[in-house]
Amino acid sequence: MAAQARLAVALMSGGMDSAVAAALVRQAGYELAGLHISYGHRTAARERRAFEALCDAWGIVRRLVVSLEHLRLIGGSALTDPAIPVPEGELSRQGIPPTYVPFRNANLLAIAVSWAEVLGASAVVIGAVEEDSSGYPDCRKVFYEAFQRVIELGTRPETRIKLLTPVIQLRKRDIVRRGVELGVPFQLTWSCYQREDLACGECDSCLLRLRGFREAGVEDPLPYARIPSGV
Questions:
Q1: Which of 16, 143, 152, 207 is the most buried (most CB within 10 A)?
Q2: What is the secondary structure of 155-213 as a DSSP string?
Q3: By C-alpha distance, which of 110, 104, 142 is closest to 124?
């Protein structure tokens, strides 16, 4: 298929990071094809709704929703195995937390690159964050630099797909600020690891999000069951 130079496959979880990453690529002039991947995690249904709402808001017509059930069957993560509790959030935690899904982002990128090659897209965008992440090894800049080489080696000789990570080195507060500048509808996004009715306000993802909005001086539009003091 002939390349479409301004088409990008956007991995969109429904969260704030991937939403802002997609918005930045839209601002750069790309048309987006929205890709959402469920892997049997606790808040899969809620994140799917967030993805669809964002696509509706931005008029994204090309959408693909994929289920990676094998990641749930493999387990090993508090997000996919109900027997492993989601730990209470701790922003100063060292090491890799039990919410890490083993090699998840490589699985997501493989699907994104496959679809991008079929569509003739010239880019894949992912909202990975290294600076203010939970310490996941597959959120590091070096991982994406290596995966760019994998794309070059594993696709057709004429395929040219650039891996875009526009928020990889931003702090959460800066992601919030850029999102506000771009008009990202943060009220449509979802970040909580363990609840689908109200954000719990206790998991790492909620704490990182709450701190980001506070440091950006912006009110988080999501409803929370609890907002810890000092976040």
A1: 16
A2: S-TT---EEE-TTTT--HHHHHHHHHHHT--GGG----SS-SSSB-S-SHHHHHHHHHH
A3: 110
Residues ≥6 apart with Cβ < 8 Å to 116: 8, 9, 33, 122, 123, 124, 161
Give the Cα separation of 128 and 20 in Å (integer): 11
**Assigned domain for 230 exists:** no
Q: State how far the Cα of 125 lies from the Cα of 6, in Å rounded to an integer.
A: 12
Bridge partners, 8 (sequence order): 32, 123
Give the residue numbers spanning the domain of 39.
Answer: 4-216
DSSP state of 137: G
Amino acid symbol at 93: R
For 115-149, the pLDDT digits (tens) are: 999 999 999 999 999 976 678 999 999 999 999 99
Which bin fits 228, alpha (ψ -120 to 50), beta or left (φ > 0)? beta
Query: Residue 150 has which token pair?
Result: 């994998």
Q: Using one digit for the tens of pLDDT, what is the confidence trace for 17-60?
A: 999 999 999 999 999 999 999 999 999 999 999 999 999 999 99
Where residue 16 sits, what CATH number does that domain have? 3.40.50.620
Residue 62 near residue 30 (C-beta atoms within 8 A): no
